[in-house]
Design brief:
Blueprint: E1 2-6, H1 18-35, E2 39-42, H2 56-66, E3 71-78, H3 84-97, E4 102-107, H4 123-139, E5 143-146, E6 151-155, E7 169-171, H5 176-185, E8 189-190, H6 197-213, E9 220-228, H7 232-252, H8 270-277, E10 278-281, H9 283-297, E11 301-305, H10 314-328
Parallel strand pairs: 1-2, 1-11, 2-3, 3-4, 4-7, 8-9, 9-10, 9-11
Antiparallel strand pairs: 5-6
Helix pairs in contact: 1-10, 2-3, 3-4, 5-6
Length: 334
């Protein structure tokens, strides 16, 4: 099993100290690589008041220059906001900076696209054409493309990517139609860290089945909020409130319907939310929880979100990264 880390680049409420947040994310990536993590991923958001990253590939390029072994990836880039040929060029640059350690994670995106002049109508077809163009740009010296949204005549990108045929493309999905799309077009499916184990298991089966039907390789990259503590009560009292604050806006979007939460504080307990959505506890707890996910889902890669917008602090995260390297990752290396 490979371990990865999500680098959180949010600075609520208004992104006033975003340069420090970026510096800390770079140091966390360096510490994670030293601890044995094999991936570092960053998301992409637009129009976020907290400064959350609007240019994932720029950040991936900086990460590539600060690391030497780990894969750097967007998870996920909001592809419809960008011209696919531009994405292919930028991705090739990151692949060269990293000497072939780059993966492109893309998705439809959830935020308003109107500021970029992208209508919602036809967004799925635009997305699929973009993936096709990026693949052709990376795999061919020159190519032409004629689609509903993009027409290209004998174009070529430079530089060429280091990875033969181009970096892997992960496709994020939060619905069954999205999973079918990921299985048909992608090389991997990065999950969100909100769905329950049962939902992820069902979706992973659908994704893998679809990939097999289209003769595509598949990889489930499971994302979970995670933490190691000396005892469960400290985690419930100190770490969980920060995660709860991160989760609750998503609950208003309907992503916790399986729990039938009324939204009151009494429902949002560590004991109720944790078992099927978190990896958190003592080192023995964490090893057992990871084994459960690996057995139930068969995930090849686990990507951990240690730092949420509300915390823990940078120094606490560095200590937790070290603990994963010393107490958890060695259990899964054989």
């Amino acid at each position: 099993m490979r371990f990865g880390i999500v680098l959180n680049t949010q600075d609520p409420p208004r992104g006033d100290d975003i340069a420090r947040i970026y510096d800390e994310a770079f140091r966390e990536a360096e510490a994670a690589e030293q601890a044995g993590f094999e991936l570092a991923v960053v998301g992409e958001h637009h129009h976020s008041l907290d400064g959350c990253l609007p240019s994932a590939l720029t950040f991936c390029a900086a990460l590539a220059a600060r690391t030497s072994r780990m894969v750097v990836a967007s998870d996920v880039m909001q592809l419809p906001m960008w011209h696919p040929l531009h994405v292919a060029e930028m991705g090739a640059v990151v692949d060269n900076i990293s000497h072939g350690r780059f993966a492109l994670g893309v998705g439809l995106g959830q935020r308003d696209r109107s500021a970029f002049g992208i209508p919602r109508e036809g967004i799925v077809r635009r997305f699929e054409e973009s993936v096709q163009i990026i693949r052709q740009a990376w795999a061919n010296e020159s190519f032409s493309y004629g689609g509903e949204y993009f027409t290209l005549d004998n174009v070529r990108i430079s530089p060429r990517p280091v990875q033969r045929g181009g970096p892997p493309i992960w496709i994020g999905a939060l619905s069954k139609p999205g999973l079918l799309r990921a299985g048909r077009l992608g090389d991997g499916w990065p999950t969100d860290n909100l769905q329950s184990l049962a939902t992820i298991k069902e979706w992973a089966n659908l994704y893998r089945q679809t990939a097999a039907e289209h003769s595509r390789k598949s990889e489930v990259l499971l994302a979970r909020s995670a933490w190691i503590g000396d005892n469960r009560s400290d985690i419930a009292e100190q770490w969980w409130p920060r995660v709860r604050a991160f989760f609750q806006p998503y609950a208003k979007m309907g992503l916790f319907k399986d729990l039938m939460l009324a939204g009151g504080e009494a429902d949002w307990t560590f004991e109720r939310i944790g078992p099927d959505r978190l990896i958190a506890g003592t080192p023995d707890d964490v090893v057992g929880q990871i084994e459960r996910y690996r057995t139930e889902i068969g995930c090849e890669t686990l990507i951990l979100l240690l730092r949420h917008p509300q915390g823990p602090s940078h120094q606490e995260v560095l200590k937790c990264i070290a603990r994963f390297g010393q107490e958890i990752i060695p259990h899964f290396q054989s």
